[in-house]
Design brief:
six-stranded antiparallel β-sheet; 147 residues; single chain; alpha+beta
Amino acid sequence: MMPDILGFYEIREEKDRVFIRFSSTMEHIDTACAAVLLFLRSKGPKFFPHLFAVNLGMREAMANAVRHGNKYDLDKLVSMELDISGDEWLRMKISDQGPGFEWVQVQDQVLPDEADHGRGMRIMRTYFDRFSYNKKGNTLYLEKHIL
């Protein structure tokens, strides 16, 4: 039997929630994003105008979790929860098992135009109504108002 070089991937759906956990590989990000977009499409047209923003934010956050948080360690998991229950807000929580970072210190950092990384917080601020991290800096909370 051949070992699974991509490690672990798990998805669980409820009526208004999706839970995903996976080993720290970039390959799982495409699968997770496709599953979330399919879930949102199945919930009706009010989500359609927000699919780009959700995909972009989720992809950026998960890539940062794999790359910077878990440092591609297959034994560490990235977790994502999407919640659309009960009100006009879409909420996501994305966590890694890394040491976290001092997000408050870098949230307003200005980057040179030629920088090839470091734009995650600008993306979150542009496409989501609210974003924050836990104190440790290894869990990102995103909220988007859905009309």
